[in-house]
């Protein structure tokens, strides 16, 4: 195990963008002749292409639906409303109502239907308006989807994607703000992904849809409108990011900061502030909650000797707790200071703006924690 | 998509005695049988009570049901001998539903059920050895010993399990029907559930969507009148389960009569392919308790149980029909039962020889694609594996 980590340290962690080779099978494709609205992002020919996360997800869905007739999208308002957050804009017009399905507000029912369709061999993408509502369907995600390949000893696999916004939005209160990464991340049989940038969104969603196992895809509502630069490779329809590999967003040598989803942006800002004080932080974008890229994280901490874990969700039994345990188990001698955890406050999300701000990690919190370690 | 191979049922044995006899009927001469009771329809005209069959089918019904009965009784003994662990939910008494349904459909149609799944598995082409080995947790089991009694599957035979969470199988079944329609397969799905599950909210959620989208889904309520220890009148304000679909038509069927079941399933399949979902309520009975942990006599009287056995036993009904149509003698049927007993005993012996799964199987089938990820045992420094 030690040897494995050391060799991977040399190889560096993540950042690679492998385009997975794929044979595309076209079954009877029926394109309805609705108005062909382009659903891809801005493609200006100036030096750097930028794409919003929303467009990244939209284009990924569109391309995967074009490539494989078995892929379909179901959820509330995904069709005629163009998506509650417009992520599925234009897809109904392009692919038709058989493949973009508006469901009634019955999460347990439509999740079960999605999983059953996956049993038969289709590749459904089930959208939740937020993962708070997925709690109504969690039995199907865990007991019907995650465990079935194991219980059937491989007879029935479940190639399904459960996606939607996770974590806090802005001012939506206690029942609409929980982060579920730790809950789903603990379940064997699931893969759990958390994109940050548009590159992440495109590459991970494509990988998730192509994956033969159930994937929980945790997006973030506040990131949908954020634009990121994307290379030509990212925009190509075969682009895919490997599942289970973290990305080192910024190299550093004094302290490792692990984060995922929106907190990656906060961690990068914190790294800028720390740099002003001569502290060179390494920021890791986990991308994959399960499988967790333990070797990249351990490799980084063995280099920097200090770790701050950052997440939006409740810290108890959280992702940071697992990362801390992993470091203590595998890289204890490399730590020069205890592990610091930054997470959401141990309270149901309050509504008042000042309390809400206190309930969520802010950039200052990450900076302060890193400084405590130096 | 589901891969489907038409396989001769392992339950079908050479009809040596029927053919070698001097009986006037050939094995395929059509015979008409009347169902014991008329069907009751909800928002639909019920089918006729006259059911077409053949001597071959009658004998097959007898054999298949007797085999299922014997398998379940043998499982009772194995459980008491502690060779079967955990939960074991037996189907004896309900065989007519499995056998009647199977005779009306093909292996391209799908069946999904809850945990009382051993006999349905057999009907879909599962073998006795696969069943017993799975019950005893051995590697020759249909789920390699990793599933257990409640998790039998056979995708290639159109059997999708085998589910432990009451009611979950109904939306899953509607999902199978959705996929069949999406793939333009012209086949249907039978999603089976009990009177206990009939009150589940997710059932109504799924039924709403099945009706909205005209899915070829047939919801089959195997009403054995007890949800574990709770009688139907204590759990349901309206125990007329065939009517609970409201806007979805329903049919009440004598579930102890294999021909009534056959007729109803044939009727339902035609309906579902044209008009969307329909509910079938099978009025049936289980002789055992809810599971092997339940004696089954604290909430029912022994008189009730023996009364059903005397008046309505599904195997006895077919035996009487076979004798009435002069297709076999009493002795021949008893010999068949002896053959079946031996077949079951041989299968148990073979299953007992099968070893427990290899320890490495602890970590297999978690994912189809494991990406070389590590998985850990109880002591993560001691037991770990790389998932391929």
UniProtKB/TrEMBL annotation, chain A:
One of its GO terms (molecular function) is pyruvate dehydrogenase (acetyl-transferring) activity. It is found in: Mitochondrion matrix. It is an enzyme of class 1 (oxidoreductase). Its cofactor is thiamine diphosphate. Keywords: Metal-binding, Mitochondrion, Oxidoreductase, Potassium, Pyruvate, Thiamine pyrophosphate, Transit peptide. Its EC number is 1.2.4.1. The keyword Mitochondrion applies. InterPro entries: PDHB_mito-type, THDP-binding, Transketo_C/PFOR_II, Transketolase-like_Pyr-bd, Transketolase_C. Its main location: mitochondrion. It catalyses: N(6)-[(R)-lipoyl]-L-lysyl-[protein] + pyruvate + H(+) = N(6)-[(R)-S(8)-acetyldihydrolipoyl]-L-lysyl-[protein] + CO2. SUPFAM superfamilies: Thiamin diphosphate-binding fold (THDP-binding), TK C-terminal domain-like. GO terms for cellular component: mitochondrial matrix. Residues 51-226 form the Transketolase-like pyrimidine-binding domain. The pyruvate dehydrogenase complex catalyzes the overall conversion of pyruvate to acetyl-CoA and CO(2). It contains multiple copies of three enzymatic components: pyruvate dehydrogenase (E1), dihydrolipoamide acetyltransferase (E2) and lipoamide dehydrogenase (E3). Tetramer of 2 alpha and 2 beta subunits. This is Pyruvate dehydrogenase E1 component subunit beta. It comes from Penstemon smallii.
TrEMBL record, chain B:
Its cofactor is thiamine diphosphate. The keyword Oxidoreductase applies. It catalyses: N(6)-[(R)-lipoyl]-L-lysyl-[protein] + pyruvate + H(+) = N(6)-[(R)-S(8)-acetyldihydrolipoyl]-L-lysyl-[protein] + CO2. Its EC number is 1.2.4.1. PANTHER family: PYRUVATE DEHYDROGENASE E1 COMPONENT SUBUNIT ALPHA, PYRUVATE DEHYDROGENASE E1 COMPONENT, ALPHA SUBUNIT BACTERIAL AND ORGANELLAR. Tetramer of 2 alpha and 2 beta subunits. The pyruvate dehydrogenase complex catalyzes the overall conversion of pyruvate to acetyl-CoA and CO(2). It contains multiple copies of three enzymatic components: pyruvate dehydrogenase (E1), dihydrolipoamide acetyltransferase (E2) and lipoamide dehydrogenase (E3). This is Pyruvate dehydrogenase E1 component subunit alpha. It comes from Penstemon smallii.
């Amino acid at each position: 195990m030690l040897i494995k980590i050391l060799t991977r340290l040399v190889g560096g962690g993540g950042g690679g963008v492998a385009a997975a080779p794929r044979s595309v099978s076209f079954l009877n494709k029926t394109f309805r002749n609705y108005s062909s609205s382009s659903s891809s992002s801005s493609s200006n020919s100036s030096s750097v292409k930028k794409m919003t996360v929303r467009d990244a997800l939209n284009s990924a869905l569109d391309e995967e639906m074009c490539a494989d007739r078995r892929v379909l999208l179901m959820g509330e308002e995904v069709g005629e409303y163009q998506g509650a957050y417009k992520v599925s804009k234009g897809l109904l017009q392009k692919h038709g109502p058989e493949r973009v399905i508006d469901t009634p507000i019955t999460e347990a029912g439509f999740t079960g239907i999605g999983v059953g369709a996956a049993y038969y061999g289709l590749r459904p993408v089930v959208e939740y308006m937020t993962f708070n509502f997925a709690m109504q369907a969690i039995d199907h995600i865990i007991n019907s989807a995650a465990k079935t390949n194991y219980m059937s000893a491989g007879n029935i696999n479940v190639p399904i994607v459960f996606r939607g916004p996770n974590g806090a939005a802005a001012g939506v209160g206690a029942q609409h703000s929980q982060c579920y990464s730790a809950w789903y991340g603990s379940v064997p049989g699931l893969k759990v992904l958390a994109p940050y940038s548009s590159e992440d969104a495109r590459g991970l969603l494509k990988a998730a849809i192509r994956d033969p196992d159930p994937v929980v895809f945790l997006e973030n509502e506040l990131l949908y409108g954020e634009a990121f630069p994307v290379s030509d490779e990212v925009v190509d329809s075969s682009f895919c990011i490997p599942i289970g590999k973290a990305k080192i967003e910024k190299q550093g040598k004094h302290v490792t900061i692990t984060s995922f989803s929106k907190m990656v942006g906060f961690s990068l800002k914190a790294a800028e502030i720390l740099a002003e004080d001569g502290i060179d932080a390494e920021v890791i974008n986990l991308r994959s909650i399960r499988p967790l890229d333990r070797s990249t994280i351990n490799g980084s901490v063995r280099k920097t000797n200090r770790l701050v874990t950052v997440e939006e969700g409740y810290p108890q039994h959280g992702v940071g707790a697992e990362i801390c345990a992993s470091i203590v188990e595998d890289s204890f001698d490399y730590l020069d200071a205890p592990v610091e955890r930054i997470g959401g406050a141990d309270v149901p999300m309050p509504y008042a703006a000042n309390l809400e701000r206190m309930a969520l990690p802010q950039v200052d919190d990450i900076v302060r924690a890193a400084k405590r370690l130096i | 998509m589901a891969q489907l191979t038409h396989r001769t049922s392992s339950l079908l044995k050479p009809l040596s005695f029927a053919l070698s006899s001097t009986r006037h009927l050939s094995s395929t001469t059509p015979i008409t049988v009347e169902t014991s009771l008329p069907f009751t329809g909800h928002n639909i005209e019920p089918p006729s009570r006259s059911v077409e069959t053949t001597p071959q089918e009658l004998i097959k019904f007898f054999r298949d049901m007797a085999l299922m009965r014997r398998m379940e009784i043998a499982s009772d003994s194995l459980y008491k001998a502690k060779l079967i662990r955990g939960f074991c939910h037996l189907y004896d008494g309900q065989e007519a539903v499995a056998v009647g349904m199977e005779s009306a459909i093909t292996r391209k149609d799908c069946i999904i059920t809850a945990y009382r799944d051993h006999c349905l598995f057999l009907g879909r082409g599962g073998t006795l050895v696969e069943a017993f080995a799975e019950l005893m947790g051995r590697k020759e089991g249909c789920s390699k010993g990793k599933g257990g009694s409640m998790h039998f599957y056979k995708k290639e035979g159109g059997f999708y399990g085998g589910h432990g969470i009451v009611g979950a199988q109904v939306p899953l079944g509607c999902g199978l029907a959705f996929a069949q329609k999406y793939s333009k397969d012209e086949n249907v799905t039978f999603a089976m559930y009990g009177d206990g599950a009939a009150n589940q909210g997710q059932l109504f959620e799924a039924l709403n969507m099945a009706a909205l989208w005209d899915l070829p889904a047939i919801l089959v309520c195997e009403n054995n009148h007890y949800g574990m220890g709770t009688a139907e009148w204590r759990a349901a304000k309206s125990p007329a389960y065939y009517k609970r679909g409201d806007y979805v038509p329903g049919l009440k069927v004598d579930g102890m009569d294999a021909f009534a079941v056959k007729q109803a399933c044939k009727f339902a399949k035609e309906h579902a392919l044209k008009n969307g979902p329909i509910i079938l309520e099978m009025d049936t009975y289980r002789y055992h308790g809810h599971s092997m942990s339940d004696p089954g006599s604290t909430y029912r009287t022994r008189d009730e149980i023996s009364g059903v056995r005397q008046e309505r036993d599904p195997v006895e009904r077919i035996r009487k029909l076979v004798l009435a149509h002069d297709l076999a003698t009493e002795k021949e049927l008893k010999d068949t039962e002896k053959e079946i007993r031996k077949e079951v005993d041989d299968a148990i012996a073979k299953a007992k020889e099968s070893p427990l799964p290899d320890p490495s199987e602890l970590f297999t089938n978690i994912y189809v694609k494991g990406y070389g990820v590590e998985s850990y045992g109880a002591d993560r420094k001691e037991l770990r594996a790389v998932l391929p």
